[in-house]
Design brief:
There is a cross-link at residues 392-415 (3'-histidyl-3-tyrosine (His-Tyr)). The chain has 754 residues and is an alpha/beta fold. It is built from 19 helices and 21 strands. It binds CIS-heme D hydroxychlorin gamma-spirolactone.
């Protein structure tokens, strides 16, 4: 058989989804994962779509593939065709009058190819333009049935989901690791219709009323004259606004904390932010706040890592999410609710539940778990799924309703409206990623991009010509009926309630809940961001705001800016800490963590192999780093190199382990300096020293199982420093390092200046 034809047929088979998933890799089922965790970036057959990828309509409620319907529609048959299905014999040359002649207008393929290309882009999201997403499954515990009749919350019900994470300010091509809030939007394809939970990784918002949203976003986006800086809050307009509009203080403080620079989307909390209203089968209502709790804990980068990643790997978070899912380390979150009685005051412990700049501390209202989210499949096509997904807070199901939070109310308008421009018309709900899994029988008709072929002659009610169809449902037949919540009789006015006036006591609560290390990071963040502002008046105003949070915070930032600190506010109270707000002090699972193993040809390669295996066994990803690429050791027992001193940067690794002789620093010379026939050891490669020094300063565990004193000293790592392990064997070194990894970083090394 013609080999090209054979290859084409193989690709066609793959596109039809005929390859089978490994039997034991059951997406959505927590527990042992398969295939075993491996380096995410290693190319693995089959060709795309790979086993870790799904299209929107290829996943059953349990996450099982149901047949690659989408791939079939978009790509069926082995031959390249026009959009009309005519097979093509050449796509490399335009039709010309002779080989050197002018191009002929009649070349339909040329015109179709170029025209389609010219229109490939759609407007990016006005906010949250940069994002990454994954498919998954939500498995309800049944613990919410007392407060909500939503069918997908009933015990053991499994619901397919699509989750999109994002940054707020940057453009679609901006870096992942900038200091910003992260979006956490979840689409539940329930049997009663789509439910969207459109939240953030920060539980409070900058503003209390949606009418201020254009103001905060205009202030945060790049300056309108030069369009700089990209994806940053460290500039005058942002700080101008948030210091004049002090209801932004709480959210800004969270942004300046480690929450503004997450280590991974997999290690972020998510919050519905607003208070929602749940309704149970008896019609009783409860006010709730939604929380996503990551199984891997809440972890952050340090600022220097975030900055390095923005240059070295701008796709850091996107790559991490896709890589973990591809490797079988499926990220998981528990969905939880804080519940509050639905009283006319809509107030809990003195906190106005309609004010989206306030949290209710978990110590006052514990988060009760109601289900488990597992992300188990990467999208097959970024544009079709991640870019075209359209979330909306008005996508509700019976059992979940909104409240009068003025921020939420404005959002209910904005999300539908924005899709009309972004997705080009009112039929975006028909896009595969947005389609509900419930039966649809609407009377919406026509419009741009209508792909449904509606039948009947009477798209109106009442009608007799279509036999009265479709019929109206009642509550007993699953209708979504708004909760008849009372509205206090009042007059029309543009005002906020007095209970929205307190802008500082919760920022102070947050500050007082931080450990010294976290406080140090906050001080450094404010000092950096305000240091990037030009206008003195803005810096001075920011210090006045900080004086209302905490005197020490204000004084330290003032010292960094070289400005006098305004007098502390004598009215500062002590609300007491909420320990749940701190990210430190616990031990977390290690799934998907990256272990860098530095080795060279003279290293203890048996030890390297055993550390690699132990890393895999622990559900982590080992990456061997060597002076140059290729393999180390003899052909039949070699170790593959995944990173070289040129491609490895410390940000990628959660720990660095130095193998045997490499640790001595005598032979780990760079490929750059090495020459064939070198017998004498050359000086240690400066890139290795940088790797170690950065890993040290960023609080990462470092291990070695040969005498590494000289190398550590050269890398400016003090002798006896915490978290630097000198082991006897590969195994004991690995074990000691692993002990440290559970705490995420070696916190004893902080505070530092990063
Ligand atoms: Fe918003 C997108 C989260 C307030 C207007 N928002 C968007 C996304 C997230 C949030 C996660 C990205 C969804 C995706 O991945 O497609 N937004 C929030 C949260 C808010 C919030 C947690 C406050 C609690 N948003 C907010 C307000 C307005 C908007 C007050 C307007 C008045 N948001 C939008 C939008 C976007 C959006 C312009 C842009 C793209 C889109 O909706 O689909 O409509």
């Amino acid at each position: 058989q013609n080999p090209i034809k054979a290859a084409a047929e193989k690709i066609a088979d793959t596109l039809r989804g005929e390859e089978s998933r490994p039997q034991d890799s059951v997406p959505g089922k927590p527990g042992p994962v398969s295939p075993p965790v491996q380096e995410p970036t290693e190319p693995v057959q089959p060709l795309p779509p790979k086993v870790d990828q799904h299209g929107p309509e290829t996943v059953s409620p349990t996450g099982q593939p149901t047949g690659a319907e989408q791939a079939r529609v978009a790509q069926s048959g082995a031959y390249l065709t026009t959009a009309q299905g005519a097979r093509l014999y050449d796509t490399d040359h335009s039709l010309k009058a002779g080989p050197r002649g002018p191009v002929l207008l009649q070349d339909h393929h040329l015109r179709e190819k170029i025209t389609h290309f010219d229109h490939e882009r759609i407007p990016e999201r006005v906010v949250h333009a940069r994002g990454a997403a994954a498919h998954g499954v939500f498995q309800a515990y049944g613990t919410a049935t007392a407060v909500s009749k939503a069918a997908f919350l009933a015990k053991d019900v499994e619901t397919p989901v699509f989750v999109r994470f994002s940054t707020v300010l940057g453009s679609r091509g901006s870096a992942d690791t900038v200091r910003d809030t992260r979006g956490f939007a979840t689409k539940f394809y329930t049997e009663e219709g789509v439910f969207d939970l459109v939240g953030n990784n920060i539980p409070v918002f900058f503003i209390q009323d949606a009418i201020k949203f254009p103001d905060i976003i205009h202030a945060g986006k790049p300056h309108p004259d030069r369009e700089i800086p990209q994806a940053q809050s460290a500039h005058d307009t942002f700080w101008d606004f948030v210091t004049l509009h002090t209801e932004a203080t709480h959210h800004t403080l969270w942004n300046m904390s480690d929450r503004g620079i997450p280590r991974s989307y997999r290690m972020m909390e998510g919050f519905g932010v607003h208070t929602f209203r749940l309704v149970n089968a008896e019609g009783a209502t409860t006010l709730v706040k939604f929380h996503w709790k990551p199984k891997l804990g809440v972890h952050s980068l340090v600022w220097e890592e975030a900055q390095i990643a923005a240059g070295v790997d701008p796709d850091f978070h996107r790559r991490d999410l896709a890589g973990a899912i591809e490797a079988g380390a499926f990220p998981q979150w528990e969905l939880g609710i804080q519940t509050f009685p639905d009283t006319p005051e809509q107030n809990f412990a003195g906190i106005d539940l309609l004010d989206p700049t306030k949290i209710v501390p978990e110590e006052l209202a514990p988060v009760q778990p109601i289900g488990l989210l597992t992300l188990n499949a990467n999208p097959s096509n970024y544009f079709a799924e991640t870019e075209q997904v359209a979330f909306h807070l008005g996508h509700l199901v019976p059992g979940i309703d909104v409240t009068d939070d003025p921020l939420l109310q404005g959002r209910l308008f904005s999300y539908l409206d924005t899709q009309l421009t972004r997705l080009g018309g009112p039929n975006f709900g028909q896009l595969p990623i947005n389609r509900t899994h419930a039966p649809v029988n609407d009377m919406l008709r026509d419009g741009m991009h209508q792909t449904a072929v509606h039948r009947g002659v009477a798209p109106y009610r009442p009608n007799s010509l279509d036999g009265g169809c479709p019929f109206l449902a009642g509550e007993s037949t699953g209708a979504f009926v708004e909760v008849p919540a009372a509205v206090a009789a009042s007059v029309k006015e543009r005002k906020a309630p007095a209970s929205f006036d307190d802008h500082f006591s919760q920022p102070r609560l947050f500050w007082l809940s931080m450990t010294p290390t976290e406080r140090e990071h906050i001080i450094a963040a404010y000092t950096f961001e305000l240091g990037k502002c030009y206008e003195q008046a803005i810096k001075e105003r920011a210090l006045l705001v900080l004086a209302n949070i905490d005197t020490e915070l204000c004084e330290q930032v003032a010292a960094g800016l070289g400005l006098p600190a305004p007098a502390g506010d004598s009215r500062l109270t002590d609300p007491g800490p909420s320990p749940a707000l701190s990210q430190l002090g616990q031990t977390w699972p290690l799934d998907g963590r990256i272990v860098g193993i530095v080795a060279d040809a003279n290293a203890d390669l048996d030890g390297v192999r055993s550390v690699r295996q132990a890393t895999l066994d622990a559900g982590m990803v080992p990456l061997v780093i060597a002076p140059a690429g290729g393999t180390l050791g003899t052909d039949d027992n070699s170790v593959t190199v995944q990173r070289t001193f040129a491609t490895a940067r410390s940000i990628e690794f959660d720990t660095i382990i130095l193998a045997g002789a490499a640790a001595a620093g005598t032979d780990a010379h760079g490929a750059r300096d090495a020459k064939a026939g070198d017998t004498q050891p050359t000086a240690t490669d400066p890139r290795l020293l940088l790797l170690l020094n950065e890993a040290f300063r960023h609080g990462k565990a470092i291990g070695a199982w040969a005498d590494a004193d000289t190398l550590m000293a050269d890398a400016a790592i003090p002798s006896g420093a915490p978290g630097v392990i000198q082991g006897d064997t590969a195994t004991s070194t690995f074990e000691q390092v692993t002990q440290l990894l559970g705490a995420h970083r070696v916190w004893e090394r902080f505070p530092t200046t990063v």
